Amino acid sequence: MDLTAAPVVAAPIRSPWRPRLRRWVRRAGFYLSVAVIVSPAIFVFLWMLSLALKNEIDNLAYPPVFIPNPPTFDNFVQVFEQNSIGRYLWNSIVVSGGATLIALLVGVPAGYGIARTGAHRLTVLILIARMTPALSYLIPLFAVFQFLRLNNTLTALVVTHLVITVPIIVYIMASHFETLPRELEEAAQIDGAGAWTTFRHVALPLARPGIVVAFILSFIFSWNNFVFGAVLSGRETRTLPVAVYNVLTFEQLAWGPLAAAAIIVTLPVLLLTIIIQKEIVVGLTHGGVKGG
Q1: Reported pTM
Q2: Please, are residues 66 and 50 in contact by the beta-carbon 8 Å criterion?
Q3: With 32 labelled, which of 15, 58, 117, 252 sits at a CA distance of 20 to 30 A?
Protein backbone atom coordinates (compact mmCIF):
# COMPACT_ATOMS: atom_id res chain seq x y z
CA MET A 1 0.00 0.00 0.00
CA ASP A 2 1.39 3.35 -1.07
CA LEU A 3 1.19 5.71 1.88
CA THR A 4 2.81 8.59 -0.07
CA ALA A 5 -0.10 9.01 -2.49
CA ALA A 6 -1.78 12.42 -2.36
CA PRO A 7 -5.15 12.44 -0.63
CA VAL A 8 -8.17 12.84 -2.86
CA VAL A 9 -10.06 16.07 -2.11
CA ALA A 10 -13.74 15.94 -2.93
CA ALA A 11 -15.05 18.85 -5.02
CA PRO A 12 -17.41 21.17 -3.18
CA ILE A 13 -21.06 20.50 -3.90
CA ARG A 14 -22.73 23.55 -5.39
CA SER A 15 -26.28 24.13 -4.38
CA PRO A 16 -28.59 24.10 -7.43
CA TRP A 17 -30.90 26.73 -5.98
CA ARG A 18 -28.34 29.55 -5.83
CA PRO A 19 -28.35 30.37 -9.60
CA ARG A 20 -32.14 30.25 -9.53
CA LEU A 21 -32.20 32.59 -6.57
CA ARG A 22 -29.93 35.06 -8.38
CA ARG A 23 -32.14 34.99 -11.46
CA TRP A 24 -35.23 35.47 -9.34
CA VAL A 25 -33.68 38.43 -7.51
CA ARG A 26 -32.62 40.06 -10.81
CA ARG A 27 -36.05 39.54 -12.30
CA ALA A 28 -37.78 40.88 -9.19
CA GLY A 29 -35.49 43.91 -9.17
CA PHE A 30 -36.25 44.56 -12.85
CA TYR A 31 -40.02 44.38 -12.37
CA LEU A 32 -39.78 46.55 -9.25
CA SER A 33 -37.83 49.20 -11.16
CA VAL A 34 -40.37 49.15 -13.99
CA ALA A 35 -43.22 49.48 -11.48
CA VAL A 36 -41.57 52.47 -9.77
CA ILE A 37 -41.03 54.24 -13.10
CA VAL A 38 -44.41 53.48 -14.67
CA SER A 39 -46.71 53.66 -11.65
CA PRO A 40 -46.95 57.51 -11.49
CA ALA A 41 -48.10 57.67 -15.12
CA ILE A 42 -50.57 54.82 -14.61
CA PHE A 43 -51.97 56.47 -11.47
CA VAL A 44 -52.45 59.80 -13.26
CA PHE A 45 -54.23 58.09 -16.16
CA LEU A 46 -56.50 56.11 -13.83
CA TRP A 47 -57.33 59.24 -11.85
CA MET A 48 -58.15 61.08 -15.09
CA LEU A 49 -60.38 58.16 -16.11
CA SER A 50 -62.07 58.28 -12.71
CA LEU A 51 -62.81 62.01 -13.11
CA ALA A 52 -64.28 61.41 -16.56
CA LEU A 53 -66.64 58.68 -15.30
CA LYS A 54 -67.97 60.60 -12.26
CA ASN A 55 -70.46 63.41 -11.92
CA GLU A 56 -69.31 66.82 -10.75
CA ILE A 57 -70.52 66.28 -7.18
CA ASP A 58 -68.27 63.23 -6.74
CA ASN A 59 -65.39 65.03 -8.44
CA LEU A 60 -65.53 67.81 -5.84
CA ALA A 61 -66.21 65.53 -2.87
CA TYR A 62 -63.84 65.37 0.10
CA PRO A 63 -62.42 62.91 0.88
CA PRO A 64 -61.96 62.10 -2.83
CA VAL A 65 -64.03 59.35 -4.42
CA PHE A 66 -61.78 57.25 -6.66
CA ILE A 67 -64.17 54.53 -7.88
CA PRO A 68 -67.27 55.88 -9.71
CA ASN A 69 -70.49 54.52 -8.22
CA PRO A 70 -72.17 54.24 -10.64
CA PRO A 71 -70.01 55.29 -13.62
CA THR A 72 -71.53 57.80 -16.03
CA PHE A 73 -70.68 58.79 -19.61
CA ASP A 74 -72.42 62.16 -19.43
CA ASN A 75 -69.09 63.99 -19.50
CA PHE A 76 -68.15 62.40 -22.85
CA VAL A 77 -71.60 63.18 -24.26
CA GLN A 78 -71.30 66.79 -23.09
CA VAL A 79 -67.86 67.18 -24.66
CA PHE A 80 -69.03 65.87 -28.03
CA GLU A 81 -72.25 67.89 -28.03
CA GLN A 82 -70.94 71.24 -26.81
CA ASN A 83 -67.42 71.37 -28.24
CA SER A 84 -67.59 69.56 -31.64
CA ILE A 85 -64.86 67.14 -30.54
CA GLY A 86 -65.68 64.83 -33.45
CA ARG A 87 -64.67 67.50 -35.96
CA TYR A 88 -61.50 68.36 -34.04
CA LEU A 89 -60.61 64.67 -33.82
CA TRP A 90 -60.83 64.42 -37.59
CA ASN A 91 -58.71 67.58 -37.94
CA SER A 92 -56.00 66.05 -35.75
CA ILE A 93 -56.03 62.83 -37.77
CA VAL A 94 -55.70 64.75 -41.04
CA VAL A 95 -52.96 67.09 -39.78
CA SER A 96 -50.84 64.55 -37.90
CA GLY A 97 -51.36 61.76 -40.43
CA GLY A 98 -50.67 64.00 -43.42
CA ALA A 99 -47.58 65.60 -41.86
CA THR A 100 -46.20 62.20 -40.87
CA LEU A 101 -46.75 60.60 -44.29
CA ILE A 102 -45.16 63.55 -46.10
CA ALA A 103 -42.27 63.46 -43.65
CA LEU A 104 -41.78 59.74 -44.36
CA LEU A 105 -41.61 60.41 -48.09
CA VAL A 106 -38.94 63.05 -47.49
CA GLY A 107 -37.17 61.79 -44.38
CA VAL A 108 -36.56 58.12 -45.21
CA PRO A 109 -34.57 58.83 -48.44
CA ALA A 110 -32.82 61.72 -46.69
CA GLY A 111 -31.81 59.47 -43.79
CA TYR A 112 -30.52 56.85 -46.21
CA GLY A 113 -28.46 59.45 -48.07
CA ILE A 114 -26.98 60.84 -44.86
CA ALA A 115 -26.09 57.36 -43.61
CA ARG A 116 -24.44 56.23 -46.84
CA THR A 117 -22.53 59.45 -47.52
CA GLY A 118 -21.48 60.04 -43.91
CA ALA A 119 -22.93 63.57 -43.90
CA HIS A 120 -23.44 63.65 -40.15
CA ARG A 121 -23.26 67.44 -40.00
CA LEU A 122 -26.57 67.58 -41.83
CA THR A 123 -28.08 65.52 -39.03
CA VAL A 124 -26.87 68.10 -36.52
CA LEU A 125 -28.44 70.91 -38.55
CA ILE A 126 -31.73 69.03 -38.72
CA LEU A 127 -31.68 68.46 -34.97
CA ILE A 128 -31.06 72.18 -34.43
CA ALA A 129 -34.20 72.87 -36.45
CA ARG A 130 -36.09 70.44 -34.21
CA MET A 131 -34.73 71.90 -30.98
CA THR A 132 -35.54 75.48 -31.97
CA PRO A 133 -38.60 76.68 -30.01
CA ALA A 134 -41.79 76.45 -32.02
CA LEU A 135 -42.66 80.07 -31.16
CA SER A 136 -39.75 81.27 -33.31
CA TYR A 137 -41.44 79.83 -36.41
CA LEU A 138 -44.86 81.34 -35.80
CA ILE A 139 -44.33 84.92 -37.01
CA PRO A 140 -42.68 84.09 -40.37
CA LEU A 141 -45.07 81.19 -41.00
CA PHE A 142 -48.06 83.36 -40.15
CA ALA A 143 -46.84 86.04 -42.58
CA VAL A 144 -46.24 83.50 -45.36
CA PHE A 145 -49.62 81.83 -44.93
CA GLN A 146 -51.37 85.18 -44.80
CA PHE A 147 -49.72 86.12 -48.10
CA LEU A 148 -50.78 82.77 -49.63
CA ARG A 149 -54.27 83.05 -48.05
CA LEU A 150 -53.78 79.75 -46.22
CA ASN A 151 -54.40 80.98 -42.69
CA ASN A 152 -56.99 78.99 -40.73
CA THR A 153 -56.67 76.00 -43.07
CA LEU A 154 -55.60 72.40 -42.50
CA THR A 155 -53.02 72.77 -45.26
CA ALA A 156 -51.17 75.39 -43.24
CA LEU A 157 -51.17 73.15 -40.17
CA VAL A 158 -49.84 70.18 -42.15
CA VAL A 159 -46.99 72.30 -43.51
CA THR A 160 -46.09 73.68 -40.07
CA HIS A 161 -46.13 70.21 -38.51
CA LEU A 162 -43.44 69.16 -40.97
CA VAL A 163 -41.11 71.17 -38.75
CA ILE A 164 -41.86 68.55 -36.07
CA THR A 165 -42.02 65.33 -38.08
CA VAL A 166 -39.23 65.66 -40.66
CA PRO A 167 -36.30 66.11 -38.20
CA ILE A 168 -37.45 63.16 -36.07
CA ILE A 169 -37.76 60.81 -39.05
CA VAL A 170 -34.48 61.88 -40.64
CA TYR A 171 -32.54 61.44 -37.40
CA ILE A 172 -34.05 58.03 -36.60
CA MET A 173 -33.67 56.69 -40.14
CA ALA A 174 -30.09 57.93 -40.53
CA SER A 175 -29.13 56.09 -37.34
CA HIS A 176 -31.08 52.99 -38.40
CA PHE A 177 -29.56 52.77 -41.91
CA GLU A 178 -26.08 52.91 -40.40
CA THR A 179 -26.75 49.64 -38.55
CA LEU A 180 -27.79 47.77 -41.70
CA PRO A 181 -25.12 45.63 -43.43
CA ARG A 182 -23.89 47.07 -46.72
CA GLU A 183 -23.00 43.70 -48.27
CA LEU A 184 -26.48 43.23 -49.72
CA GLU A 185 -26.47 46.68 -51.26
CA GLU A 186 -23.00 46.13 -52.71
CA ALA A 187 -24.14 42.81 -54.19
CA ALA A 188 -27.12 44.53 -55.81
CA GLN A 189 -24.87 47.22 -57.25
CA ILE A 190 -22.53 44.57 -58.67
CA ASP A 191 -25.53 43.03 -60.42
CA GLY A 192 -26.19 46.38 -62.08
CA ALA A 193 -28.74 47.98 -59.78
CA GLY A 194 -28.69 51.74 -59.50
CA ALA A 195 -28.81 53.81 -56.33
CA TRP A 196 -32.60 54.20 -56.39
CA THR A 197 -33.19 50.51 -57.17
CA THR A 198 -30.84 49.48 -54.37
CA PHE A 199 -32.60 51.76 -51.93
CA ARG A 200 -36.09 50.67 -52.96
CA HIS A 201 -35.61 46.90 -53.18
CA VAL A 202 -32.79 46.24 -50.68
CA ALA A 203 -32.44 48.94 -48.03
CA LEU A 204 -36.10 49.91 -47.67
CA PRO A 205 -37.45 46.42 -46.79
CA LEU A 206 -34.67 45.97 -44.21
CA ALA A 207 -35.51 49.35 -42.65
CA ARG A 208 -39.15 48.49 -41.95
CA PRO A 209 -38.74 48.32 -38.11
CA GLY A 210 -37.04 51.71 -38.05
CA ILE A 211 -39.74 53.21 -40.26
CA VAL A 212 -42.44 52.02 -37.85
CA VAL A 213 -40.68 53.60 -34.87
CA ALA A 214 -40.08 56.85 -36.75
CA PHE A 215 -43.73 56.94 -37.81
CA ILE A 216 -45.05 56.41 -34.28
CA LEU A 217 -42.76 58.95 -32.60
CA SER A 218 -43.33 61.66 -35.20
CA PHE A 219 -47.09 61.05 -35.15
CA ILE A 220 -47.19 61.35 -31.35
CA PHE A 221 -45.19 64.59 -31.31
CA SER A 222 -47.38 66.04 -34.06
CA TRP A 223 -50.59 64.88 -32.36
CA ASN A 224 -49.65 66.52 -29.05
CA ASN A 225 -48.54 69.84 -30.52
CA PHE A 226 -50.50 72.78 -29.15
CA VAL A 227 -48.72 75.96 -30.22
CA PHE A 228 -49.22 75.73 -34.00
CA GLY A 229 -52.87 74.78 -33.67
CA ALA A 230 -53.60 77.56 -31.17
CA VAL A 231 -52.16 80.30 -33.40
CA LEU A 232 -52.61 79.16 -37.00
CA SER A 233 -55.94 77.33 -36.85
CA GLY A 234 -59.44 78.76 -37.09
CA ARG A 235 -62.70 77.88 -35.42
CA GLU A 236 -63.35 75.00 -37.84
CA THR A 237 -59.74 73.77 -38.15
CA ARG A 238 -58.72 73.39 -34.50
CA THR A 239 -56.93 70.25 -33.43
CA LEU A 240 -57.70 68.20 -30.33
CA PRO A 241 -55.15 69.78 -27.94
CA VAL A 242 -56.60 73.20 -28.73
CA ALA A 243 -60.10 71.82 -28.26
CA VAL A 244 -59.19 70.53 -24.78
CA TYR A 245 -57.98 74.01 -23.90
CA ASN A 246 -61.33 75.41 -25.04
CA VAL A 247 -63.13 73.14 -22.56
CA LEU A 248 -61.76 75.37 -19.80
CA THR A 249 -64.16 78.13 -18.88
CA PHE A 250 -63.77 81.29 -16.83
CA GLU A 251 -66.98 80.70 -14.88
CA GLN A 252 -66.23 77.24 -13.49
CA LEU A 253 -63.59 74.56 -13.90
CA ALA A 254 -65.53 71.40 -14.78
CA TRP A 255 -63.19 68.52 -14.02
CA GLY A 256 -65.39 65.84 -15.57
CA PRO A 257 -65.62 67.26 -19.12
CA LEU A 258 -61.97 68.33 -18.97
CA ALA A 259 -60.85 64.81 -18.04
CA ALA A 260 -63.12 63.32 -20.72
CA ALA A 261 -61.60 65.59 -23.36
CA ALA A 262 -58.09 64.69 -22.19
CA ILE A 263 -58.89 60.98 -22.50
CA ILE A 264 -60.22 61.53 -26.02
CA VAL A 265 -56.90 63.14 -26.93
CA THR A 266 -54.84 60.37 -25.32
CA LEU A 267 -56.85 57.34 -26.44
CA PRO A 268 -56.05 57.24 -30.20
CA VAL A 269 -52.29 57.39 -29.67
CA LEU A 270 -52.51 54.91 -26.79
CA LEU A 271 -54.49 52.40 -28.87
CA LEU A 272 -52.14 52.80 -31.82
CA THR A 273 -49.13 52.16 -29.61
CA ILE A 274 -50.72 49.08 -28.03
CA ILE A 275 -51.70 47.60 -31.39
CA ILE A 276 -48.21 47.79 -32.88
CA GLN A 277 -46.17 47.54 -29.70
CA LYS A 278 -44.30 44.50 -31.04
CA GLU A 279 -43.18 46.47 -34.06
CA ILE A 280 -41.97 49.28 -31.80
CA VAL A 281 -39.92 46.90 -29.64
CA VAL A 282 -38.39 45.28 -32.72
CA GLY A 283 -37.57 48.67 -34.20
CA LEU A 284 -35.96 49.98 -31.02
CA THR A 285 -33.85 46.85 -30.52
CA HIS A 286 -33.04 46.23 -34.19
CA GLY A 287 -29.46 47.02 -34.98
CA GLY A 288 -28.27 46.73 -31.38
CA VAL A 289 -25.98 43.93 -32.55
CA LYS A 290 -24.77 44.72 -36.04
CA GLY A 291 -24.65 41.77 -38.36
CA GLY A 292 -21.23 40.72 -39.50
Answers
A1: 0.77
A2: yes
A3: 15
